[in-house]
Write a structure and sequence with these properties.
Spermidine Synthase, Chain: A, domain 2; 5-stranded antiparallel sheet; 12 strands; globular; homodimer; alpha/beta; Rossmann fold; 281 residues; 7-stranded mixed sheet
Chain lengths: 281, 281
């Protein structure tokens, strides 16, 4: 009997990080591959970063490096706000930022508004270490359009965290001044907003424009940065707008259990290299 | 006459960053592809990062992001050493770190020892913004085995910078204590050594072992980090050993022309996230 030579398959997830750059990760299992009304949702198990959620082809979150992002999104504003009790999270349906927000004992309620209920459900089903906080009694999870929700909110929140996808399609408005104006109105008098504002290498215009748009609304606007391996270039910026307090000065120690954030990292993350400062001029 | 449909070719350089992860960059031109006695040397023009040198399949340096690495390799030790006049660079045949070293006016002579003369020549030919310093009158460039050179050097240098490739094959010894012992002997009394020590995500053992090996030789050993987009994970560590002075405290302002390094970045880069501190325990 003739035997065919054995063949080996390899499954790789390849993200086009820019038209000229791709990151590929070896996939051991495809867990979910569905189309929601808003985006393609793909969940895979990778050798390098554990489980990973990809939305419309862009890597959103991985089990192994999300702490870098989730902690920096949550703790900078929450540690420099004088008394954060009510927190709004725009997007972030995976639950990673929410988990970090709820480490702060002062937080009475965290409202998470993600347009896509299927992202929330996928995270609950496949990313338990990231999504557990979605079931917390202090979490109020609403699957709806955050832009609609925020227009109706007045002076309700101490901190708003904009955990959006890249600024394209339904998320594009989340990087523009009308949205920041609505956020401003939804915040109480000492309110702060934080947004993820992409890479100073691969998204120079986003970094610049988000800073400018937020500066047209908030009196205090500062940029900080951190490492984030699975995002393009691995260097990620965050922009924080404040009605009053200085967001670069932590007022209390880091909550327990952080792996990236400390009060010293907080202060250090506001030190920008000259090439980033030049982007903001 | 029958016409064939037009076909499009795409040329991509793909680096295997780990067995489970690959970074790919679109290539517009292959400039050089040779085998030296030590390694494969590949030089390509990429859309994302400009010209790029790849040694044995590992991306070494690109025109667009090398400043992050070259500046952090050079300026931390040179700014915290009390009076750096004589500098040794091990490896670094591209000339990027040398260019940064020579920004310091106190430096009288910088000796660069790269085992592979063909790397030096390739950089001179194709990477002018990186290699220009190789022709500087204060530069003493020797194509030879640094391990041999250093064994013979006694109390000659103020600062040694180990700009090595990954710790495999002929470069493996550059991460071990016998080499650090030779470096210690080659340094004057206030001497400092800096080494690139890889990523805390993809090279956890290297980070840990390099720190331990250097600590067995130098009384003061500190780790610092920075962003480096084209290296695996984009988060890069550097380990500095000192006979005396505190390397985390800059003694003078940054030299002119830096795009990543400032005195504030110097101090901030020594603030390690808890997950990196845990690696060093």
């Amino acid at each position: 009997m003739e035997t065919r030579p054995k063949r080996f398959n390899e499954l790789w997830l390849t993200e086009e990080q820019s038209p000229d750059m791709k990151l590929s990760l070896r996939v051991s299992e495809v867990l979910l591959n569905v189309k929601s009304p808003y985006q393609d949702i793909l969940l895979v198990e990778t050798g390098e970063y554990g489980r990973m959620m990809i939305l419309d082809g862009a890597i959103q979150i991985t089990e192994r490096d999300e702490f870098c992002y989730s902690e920096m999104m949550a703790h900078v504003a929450l540690s420099s706000h004088p008394d954060p009790r009510r927190v709004l999270i725009v997007g972030g349906g995976d639950g990673g930022v929410l988990r970090e927000v709820l480490r702060h004992k002062s937080v009475e309620k965290a409202t998470l508004i993600d347009i896509d209920e299927e992202v929330i459900n996928a995270s609950k089903r496949f990313l338990p270490t990231i999504s557990a906080a979605l079931e917390d009694p202090r979490a109020d999870v609403k699957p709806m359009d955050a832009m609609v929700y925020i227009k109706a909110a007045k002076e309700e929140f101490d901190v708003a965290i904009v955990d959006s996808t890249d600024p394209v399609e339904f998320a594009a408005g989340l990087f523009e001044s009308p949205f920041y104006r609505d956020i401003h109105n939804a915040l109480k008098k000492d309110g702060m907003v934080v947004a993820q504002t992409e890479s100073p290498f691969t998204d120079r215009n986003v970094v610049r424009d988000a800073f400018r748009e937020m500066s047209s609304v908030f009196p205090v606007v500062r940029m900080y940065w951190g490492a984030m391996p699975t995002y393009p270039s691995g260097m990620w910026t965050y922009t924080v707008g404040s009605k009053n307090a200085d967001p670069s000065a932590p007022l209390r120690p880091a909550p327990e259990g952080t792996r990236y954030y400390t009060s010293d990292i907080h202060r250090a993350s506001f030190v920008l290299p000259p090439f980033v400062i030049d982007l903001l001029k």
